[in-house]
Fold these 3 entries.
Entry 1:
Amino acid sequence: MLHTVIHGDPGGAPPLLIAHGLFGSARNWGVLARRLSDDRQVLAVDMRNHGASPRSPRHGYEEMAGDLAEVIAAHGGRADVLGHSMGGKAAMVLALTRPGLVGSLVVADIAPAAYTHTQLPLVRAMRGLDLSVVATRRDADAALAGEVPDPAVRAFLLQSLELKGDRPRWLLNLDALEAEMPRIMGFPGIEARFGGPALFLSGGASDYVGAEHADLIRGLFPRAEQATIPDAGHWLHAEAPREFETALRAFLDRAVTGP
């Protein structure tokens, strides 16, 4: 089963399951998860091939949705689900294929579509880092700078570099992520619809979700609402955490009480 960080105790509302994006982890969501646990239990997972979760050569959305279903089954059998980027695609596949497990769905800055870009350069940059000469995170940051010029992206990647123990290591299965990158960038063809409440929350400065995706989203998720956080990019929950939290709480409250 996926490594799960549990915040808070079970309450009247179903738990909220949080699925992070590519190269992320449950701990990336720690501050928000703790804040949201004031009125419900929050379950933040490490996705397969990330963090402390099991490794597998398979990294498609069918497998990831199955992982999330297993966590939900272990925590009462039904949950509201929030997913960002890769985690958002996994959450969508879960809702489409196992709708009985999902109360409400929140998808952060991703559409149910295939994307033409790839994250292989980041995988190769991490693989190319000579960990034998890395003693501190500052060392790693300096060594990555040539291949990853954006300091914010480097900081994000380096959250998955474990410096404890005998030697540094990546808490990512880079072999599987590289091999399965076409599946990660894609989206499976599913002839189903999720009839529950859904919120697609995007960053205004991000190009991951555009007007061209609106019909696709509504076709699979007929009750979908779409909202934008102005000036936030793809990591909208980190760039605008209070605005993200406000929008998320308002949606989840509406989903419970009705329009």
Note: The first strand starts at residue 4 and ends at 7.
Entry 2:
Amino acid sequence: MTTLDIDALRQRFPALALSPGGRPFIFLDGPGGTQVPDTVIEAVADYYRTSNANHGGAFETSRRSDAIVAEAHAALADLLGVDTDEVIVGPNMTTLTFHLSRSIGAGLEPGDEIILTGLDHAANVDPWLAVAADRDLVVRWWEPDLGDCTLHLADLEALLSPRTRLVAVGWASNAVGTINPIAEIAAAAHRVGALVYVDAVHAAPHLVLDARAVDADFVACSVYKFFGPHLGAVYGRRSILAALRAYKVRPAEHRFETGTGNFEGQAGALAAIGYLEDVGRMAGAPAGSTRRERLVTAMGAIRGVEMELYRRLHDGLASIRGLSLRGITDPADFERRTPTAAFTISGFSAAQVAGRLGDEGVAAWDGDFYAVGLVERLGLGGAGGLVRLGLTHYNTRAEVDRTVDLVRAIAAGAGPTAEAVEQGAVANR
């Protein structure tokens, strides 16, 4: 396996050079949104300089804008392993899911059943709860095993019935990192004629996505989680999209992209995919490979880098007295998780821990991260939730070590150790 030159890749992310107070800043907030490479910043700025126009005009800037938008759709399709006309672009995954849920719900009848999980982000729960309330549907809950925050297929099988019309599930948990077996879930749902709507927002920065291979009907993601601007994209199976009722203004050409699009964001999305192609080339994708092949190579290499870092992070955190990791903690089972650590520390709220880390130059999230149901089921809803550290391929061993040392000092009720101070000086190496 080709080793990525992480130092070279880090040079492409201007934000990674930030050093407030002279101390290198560590970005472990990736699950909430990653940093972006220079080419994304340049693409957004260049759009405004050379192509800023509305859609469909008979003049040069509009033609340029339309070409960028078309290519951005094609690039996102290659990331998801689907065709360009099956990709819907909008503000973010949540907005697109609410929009599509209305169209899907229009074909459902009172008494029809939908299955939701207790593991998911609210963006793949609340739209369906709203549809259920509007259409008098039956909601069935697929409950996670709270011991390791995983979903068991046997529990899904027990919930499925001839009245099941939709299963909404995440490809990976944004809170605790669990990767779900989407192909097996889709096969089970399709046996009773149900649709499968997959939230791949947390999976997209970490895994090779292939919507066709897993036979999902919808796969939703957000570009700002994989090194691009604030933008969302959804794959929808062509035959299903054609049959859905579309809620749109009459002149709109696209049945599910309503209003004027964020064209500058789509220029940035195209550049984000281009960055991943560059990672694929660095990882050994041969000359003459397709964009899809370069992206598959890139994500495979990224996965290897991230999980090596995650094992280091996990081992460090697991050794801290009073710290409890949530999710899959058996290293032998790490192929079923992303490089995202969620934990609590006895005697400290999640906000206190994240605040202390922030004061020391480490970006970490605390709370429920919109995975409200899971945090409530874990009994942490009224206790401030979890601390979340999310690695991406641009993080380093030195950053992991410094962060672990800081967390250890917090758990011990002390200030930063000498080792943490020293590591802070070399965290960008």
Note: Confidence is low (pLDDT under 50) at residues 416-429.
Entry 3:
Amino acid sequence: MPALNINGKEHSVDADSGMPLLWAIRDLAGLTGTKYGCGIGECGACTVHVAGKAVRSCKVTVGEAAGKDITTIEGIPESHPLVKAFAQLNVPACGFCIPGQIMQAAALIKQKGDLEDGEIVEGMNGNVCRCGAYARIIAAVRQAAGVSR
């Protein structure tokens, strides 16, 4: 059984090493904040961090993630600047994409820090919002990154 270190806790999962990480996180570890969207890595709903990098968990296998630190939306504290900014700016409409948006943005801010609006748009490209809240998402990422406009 592969062991997955998810949000600082080890999970022994009864899974084939080829199983998509998304299903191990949701169905075997019981962490349902990570969403299934498209299953082909195009929408970003299933974004998590593996070894500090934002990845689409529907495209990463259990075998590829085993032994690496995995962070899901449940591992992002309520005090995180992105969580606060998304709430303060009333970003969630339906809320479905928000876990993936926050995970992508957290990796972007950690990687780049000081961001221009164009860099935010480019860095968030591929994370689909069915409600079209892109302007609020960009504003929240800008606020969390401490970028003044």
Note: The radius of gyration is 15 Å.
